[in-house]
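Discussion board: Methods & Data

I've been asked by a reviewer to show the raw model output for two of the constructs in my manuscript, not just the figures. I'm not sure how much to include, so I'm pasting the format here to get opinions. Each protein appears as its amino acid sequence followed by a line of discrete structure tokens. Is this the kind of thing reviewers expect to see in a supplement, or should I convert it first? Here is construct A:
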Amino acid sequence: MNDGGGCPFLNLGWCPGGRAEEGGLAGAALIANPRDADEPAVDLRVQAGVPAVETASRVGVPAGRTVAVPFYLPLPEGATGRHRLPLLLRAFARGHAAALDASCHVWLVRGVAWAEAPGRPPAEISPLSGPEVALGETSGDWIGLEEGAWAGPQDLSARFRLAWTPQNLILSAVVRDDVHVQGQQPEDMWRSDSLQLAFDYRGGAWRAVAAGRPARWLEIGLALHGDGRAMGFRWFPKRGPLDGVSFSLSRHGEETQYLVSVPAHALGAGTLLRGDVIGFAALVNDDDGHGREGWLALDDGIGFSKDPRKYGLLALD
């Protein structure tokens, strides 16, 4: 949750829900009262989505409690692929105002009729033919640990595609990297060229963190070792080998191809359904021979801090 943004006795946050009947997303504004006295009248205004929809409501917030107020987050008509949706929350009480800019990325992921043989990664990336998301076309995607470490798209860039079946969430990434370096053990692959992925099924970890409860999400890594081995590792919820997740890695010229199929049960789902919303972030690490120089980030919540509230959203379409 963010601070009150000018209101000393209210904290504002939000969490995503699933797809709404109107076609956009459901969400909930979270108004927390950390004081030991009730706040009987809080006026909430939410401006959300494209086209923007503004709603207003009045709620009471008991002492030491958090109140969730539902709202609707519309998507652009006929939208496909990934979009940044504006979201502004404002709360007013006793002459004070709290504000939170919670604009977020939403990626509409299409379902595919693709039967994967158990335990075998698909052989080609071609089945994932939906909208592509590119990273590294501008410096805004790059998080550098050293000044001047990123020399442009030819140094490091990436293209992502996603799809889903009831049994699997499927991701392909093609990373252009002029120098491939990876000699780490699986648990330390993030120190060199690698791909990190994080998933929060139906925003369960997001809500838990916002409420101060223990949270559970999935964070995994993939890397092609210098000796040709395809490595996988799981950091959350339990550190260890990437059992049950199919993946295939290869390098051709200056491009490394990643293909991974994450089963629904690894995400915490029995079956994936149209309308499910999953928190998602991806990070492409770069090492040109002198250690980790930085990374390309597809939303936050992995690199500097582990925080599922910073993820973008996947909406299964």
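Construct B, same format:
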Amino acid sequence: MNYSSLEEKLERVDDHIIGIWKFKRKGMSPKWCATYCWEGEYYDIEGKPTVEEVLDCLYRELVLLQHGEEVTLSV
């Protein structure tokens, strides 16, 4: 399945996502961030230029966690 739409990408991570928001600092481009939960632990993804990139990164991290691999910071 090709997850091309925002809705489809959100459905892939729906069981784990806590929230998505836009983070702005004066004089800098806005960045997208997300918080998700995996087995009772909370993780953040930050600094992505689009919401789609945040969801793609979140999905990749969930795949790594499902395979028991360590996840490094997504900055």
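Answer (T.O., handling editor elsewhere):
This is acceptable in a supplement if you add a one-line summary per construct. For B, something like: The radius of gyration is 12 Å.
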